[in-house]
Amino acid sequence: MNFYNTITALGWCLLLSLTTHGQDMQQGFALLDSGQFGEASQFFEEVLLTYPDNKTAKLCYGRAIGLSDNPQLAIQTFKQLDQRYPNDLEVLLNLAESYLWAKDFTSAVEAYRDLKVSFPDHQGISLGLANSLSSNQEHLAAKREIERALNMGDNPQVNTSHKYIMLAYAHSIKNEYPAKSVQVLKALYKTNRYDKDILIALGYNALTIKDYELSQKCFELLSRDAPVDSQLGLATLYLTTKRPSKSEKILNQVKPTMSSNDSRLGQLEVLLYDIYLTKQRLSKANSQLGNIKKYLSKEQYLEKVIYLKLAQDNKEESADSIKLVSGQTTSNALSMRHAMEFAEYEIAETQYNQYSSRWSNEQLLTLMHKYQKLNTTPLTTEFSYLNDNNGNVANQFSIKIYGKPTNKLIPSLCYMQRWVNNDIMTMPASNMEMLGGLGLRWNHRHMSSYHFGTQSSSLASKNNYIYKAFHTYNVNKKQYFKGIFEKSVLDYNSSLLATNIIERTYGLEHHIYDGFRLGSFTQVFYKRLTGDNQGIVAFNSIYYSMLSTVTWQIGLNTNYLSFNDMRLEYFSPESLTSLSLFTKLTNEYVEDESLKYIINLGIGKQFATTENLPQTIYSIHAQIGYIVSPSFDLACYYKYSNSSNVANNGYSAYQLGLIGNGYFGYKNKL
C-alpha cells in the first residue's frame, strides 16, 4: 500500500480553491479528479502554451505528469516554480509530495520537516510527513506524527492514512513485540470493526500470541465482505491449532472459487504443503513443493525443503539443504536453527561465528542464547533432605556434569552421596554412587545413553557395580518412546541393610501430545529383586493443557504396583493401585522470564490388597527458581506425598531441596 496516495486528494483539494486567472480549467480539474492523468497532462500542457505564467495550470501539469509515472519531471517542474515563487506553500507542498511519487522517501521526509518548521500546525504537512516517515520505515515516528495530525481536526484523508500507518507500525513490531502489535491493532479494530485490512492483520497477529479466540472472531467477521480471506485465515488458524484435516477441508472448498491469477493462491498452496507435512503425507508434500516454489523466496523455499527432509529422516540431504541455505540467506538464522534441530552443531557454530554480529532482534538473540548454552559444559548440583515421619531421615548431595554436545557423543559424570539415619541407629549410614556416562545422538530421531559405575555402603562388605542404559526414539515432535534397562541398589532404606538389595529394571516410557491441549505420559517397569522377588510398577498421567503460554495442566494420575514377595524390607505389597486428580501450573518453558515456578497439587485414593478401605492420598510439589545470569540459575523445592511406593518405604514423606545449574564456558557476546 502506497501511503502517499491518501494525501494526493488533499493536495488536489487545495488546488481547486486556487484562482484560475479567468481561464476555464474545469475540464482539466475533472480529468485529474477522475485519475485520467495522461489526458490531464495534455490538457494543462495546452493551457500553458497560451498562458505560460499561469501558476495553477503549471501546478496541475506537474501533478498530472507526476501521477502518470513521470515523477522526476514533476520534481523539476516544481523546483522551477519554487525559483519563481520562493517559499510559496502550495509549491513546496507539491514538491514534497513529488518525492513520494518518486519513492525518494528520505528527500520527502526532509522536505516535509523543513515545511513543518515554518508551519508547525498545518495538517497537510503533518499528514505528508507521517506518510513519508512510514514509507521510509520510520514507523514509530510516523505513528506519532499521524496522531498529531488527527488532533488537528477530522479529515477523511488523515483517517485513511492513520489506518495504514498504524497497520505498518503494527507489522514492524510484530516479531519483536507481538503482544504490543496486537494491542495496536485492537485499538484500530475498536473504531473500524468491519475493515478488511484491520481484520486480516489482527487475525494473523493474534496467532503469534496464541489468542486463538480473537483470531477466529476476526476471520469470521471477514466472511461478510471478504469470504476468501476469511476461509484462508480460518484454515491457517486450524492448522496452527493442530487441526490439519479441518484446514484441508476448507482449502479444498475455497480453491475452485479462486482464479488462476488470484494473488492469494500462493498462500493457499503453501498452506496445503504445511498440511501434508503435518499429516505425514510426505509424497503429497514432495509433489506440492513444485506448486509452491514460484510463490516463495529462495530462503523460504529451502526452509520448506529442510522440513520435508527432516520428516523423511533423510539426514544427508537435510544437512546439504542446511548448507545450501547457509549460502543463500542474509542473516542465516534459518540455517542455524535447523542445524541445531539436526544436531549439526558444527554447522551451527560456523553460522553463529560468521553472522552473530548482524543479528539484532529479540527472536535471534534468544536463538543465540540457546546455541551458546549448547557450547558450554553444564553442571548441576543438588542437596536434599528427606523425612518419612517414621524416624527415617536422609540427606543427599549430588553433582552431575555433562560434556559439550558439539558432536554426536555427550559424556557425563555423576557423583552422589547419601547419609541415612533412623531412631535405632547410633550413627548415620552412608551410600555413595559414582557413574560415568556417554550419550550418543544417532540422528534427530534416535538418542542413546549409557552409564556405568559403582555403589558402596558403609554397612556393606563389598561394592556393587551398577549400570543404566536408555534409548529414545522420537516418532515426531509430538511423540516418543524410551526403552530402559538398569541394575541398581534399592533406594533409601537399603542403606540400613548389611546385604544390599539388587534391583534390575526393564522398562518402557511413552509420551504423546496432540500439539494443542491433550497429552499422555506412561511408564511401565518390570523389576527383579534379590531373592527372586519380582513385580510390575506402572504409571500413567493423562492431562489437558488449559493455557498455551504459561503451562496449566489438569489431569488424572494412575499408579499400579504388584510384587510376589511381601517382606517388609522390600516394601513390596502384593497389589496396590492409586488414582489421583492433579493440577500443575508452571512457567518453566517461558524463555523470557527470569523468575521460574512450579506448583503441582494432587489428591486421590489408594487401594491396597492388605487394607479394607481405600486411603486418601495427597501430593504437593512447589518449586521456585531464579535465572541469576545466562550462565547460572538456582531453584529450591518442597515435595510431600503420603502415597505408598518403593522410594519412601510406604510412609508419608516430605523432601526439601536446593538445585543449582551452571554453564561453564558460556561467553555472552551480545
Task: Name the features.
single chain, about 675 residues, alpha+beta, 16-stranded antiparallel barrel, about 40% helix, disordered N terminus
- Going by helix content, strand content and strand pairing, the class is alpha+beta
Work out the helix count: 22
Arithmetic mean of pLDDT: 82
Spatial gap, N to C terminus = 36 Å
Strand order of the largest sheet: 1-2-3-4-5-6-7-8-9-10-11-12-13-14-15-16
| Shape verdict | elongated
Helix content: 40-55%
Residue windows where pLDDT falls under 50 for at least 5 positions = 1-10, 12-23, 492-498, 646-650
Task: Provide the gyration radius in Å.
Answer: 35 Å
User: Main sheet, how many strands, which sense, barrel?
Assistant: 16 strands, antiparallel, barrel
- Number of E strands: 16
| Fraction of residues in β-strands | 25-35%
Instruction: Report the oligomer.
Output: single chain
Topology:
Blueprint (H helix, E strand, L loop, with lengths): L4 H12 L9 H8 L3 H14 L4 H13 L3 H14 L4 H13 L3 H14 L4 H13 L3 H12 L5 H17 L5 H14 L4 H13 L3 H10 L5 H14 L3 H11 L10 H14 L3 H11 L5 H14 L3 H14 L4 H9 L3 H11 L6 H13 L2 E11 L5 E10 L6 E13 L7 E13 L4 E12 L6 E13 L2 E11 L12 E12 L4 E12 L3 E13 L5 E13 L12 E11 L8 E14 L6 E15 L2 E10 L11 E12 L6
Antiparallel strand pairs: 1-2, 1-16, 2-3, 3-4, 4-5, 5-6, 6-7, 7-8, 8-9, 9-10, 10-11, 11-12, 12-13, 13-14, 14-15, 15-16
